[in-house]
Amino acid sequence: MLSGWEIFLEAAIKVVAIFIMLLVTVILLVWIERKVVADMQNRIGPSRAGPFGILQTVADGTKLLFKESMTPRKVDFPLYIIAPIAALVPALLIFLVVPIGRPFHIGDRLITLQGTDLNIAVLYFLALSSLAVYAVVLAGWSSGSKYPLLGAVRASAQMISYEAAMGLALVPVIIFTGTTSMSGIVESQAGDWLGFLGVWNVVLIPSFVVFFVAGVAETNRAPFDLVEAESEIVGGYHTEYSGFRFALFFLAEYINIFNISALTVTLFLGGWAGPDFGTPAAISWIFPIFWFFLKTLGLVFVFVWIRASLPRMRYDQLMAFGWKRMIPLSLIWIVLSTLAIGVRRFGLPWS
Q1: How far apart are CA 152 and CA 159, in angstroms?
Q2: What is the pLDDT at residue 351?
Q3: CB distance 206 to 330 below 8 Å
């Protein structure tokens, strides 16, 4: 039986480890995006700071950290400061429920490679992702300028629209797996051939497509990045932010890219499941971590690929796509998948 201090220490170590991992991941993601887009456009990309320009992101982050933050005269200062924090905190908390590897034992103690295993983890994710809307609205309204306010209204409408589609896309997954726990969803996708090739939830193809596309829109990435486009309303809801305050928005965006990729892998692509090649039990926990990050980085590459390939949508096209395509498709798929799962489990009513 673990004492209270041991439980607290284990939780604290996991939280700190996840925080450091996300910060390092953001540095790598920005560098990967710059290099991949540069390669796709026949450019060089970062090449000066550090080997292959890998320290360029560190240099940019350091510049933002020490750059003077300008505060407009008409801001509502408490809300103006709270907004970037409200954007970053949910992004950090979402990853706590994502299992990155198979649990293993040290002596009699079971170690889970997950911040916390909530039995309502899917609902936890949806609740925290909805909080990001508040950061957008607060940033635009508190800036004391009509341009960030208009950008915030457009951004919040976009996020709410695609968040509805994202939530509906997860209903068939919950029905199919019978659980809202992330670890339970991963275990339901496990297979018998080298611990691989189970029934991945990617067989729910419409759910997978809607969830990932909605995730791209939720993170304000191309082709859904209208709220930050120079050709639209100045620079969006964070126009009046600079220095470290702007860096928090920037950090939240890239953490959310990694979060959406990791959640898509967990919910649809088997999570950490993958071939273990009969490795000894002492090191069998390493391969699941490798497969999880390999799959996640594969989806991050798709994020970058989309940015380099697709033109930006008009705002009316963006909203129509969410309300007239994504949400109706999700509703129809819920009905069809529920009927199919019911027949699979209970058989035909007349048989």
Answers
A1: 10
A2: 61
A3: yes
d(CA 101, CA 126): 22
Domain parsing of the chain, residue ranges = 67-275+284-346
pLDDT in tens, 24-46: 999 999 999 999 999 998 999 89
125 alpha carbon, distance to own chain's centre: 10
Mode of pairing for the β-strands spanning 109-111 and 104-106 = antiparallel
Number of C-beta neighbours around residue 22 at 10 A:
19
* Structural contact between residues 142 and 75, judged by C-beta atoms closer than 8 angstroms: yes
Residue found by looking up tokens 């990155």 in the block = 100
Cα–Cα distance list, 342 to 171, 174, 234, 268, 309 (Å): 14, 13, 51, 20, 40
Residue reference for tokens 């039995």:
119
Exposure b/e, 213-224, CB count within 10 A at least 16 = b: bbbbbbbbbbbb
3-state SS class at 175? helix
Q: How many whole angstroms from its chain centre is CA 331? A: 23
Q: Could you report the per-residue pLDDT of 210-261, keeping only the tens digit for each?
A: 999 999 999 888 888 877 766 665 667 888 898 899 999 999 999 999 999 9
pTM of the model: 0.92
Predicted confidence band at 195 (pLDDT cuts at 50, 70, 90)? very low
Question: Tokens 């620079």 — which residue?
Answer: 235
What's the rounded Cα separation, in Å, for the pair 183 and 267? Answer: 10
- Whole-Å CA distances, 91 to 79, 82, 88, 265: 19, 15, 5, 17
Q: Phi/psi of residue 310, each to 5°?
A: -100, 140
pLDDT over 70, % of the chain = 92
Q: Is 209 helix (H, G, I), strand (E, B) or coil?
A: helix
CA separation for the pair 38, 26 (Å, rounded)? 18
- Tokens 């069809």 appear where? 336
Look at the alpha carbons of 151, 160, 269, 99 in this order and tell me if their dihedral is positive or negative. Answer: positive
Helical H segments across the chain, by residue range? 4-40, 56-66, 77-94, 121-142, 146-177, 182-188, 205-218, 243-268, 286-309, 315-320, 327-346
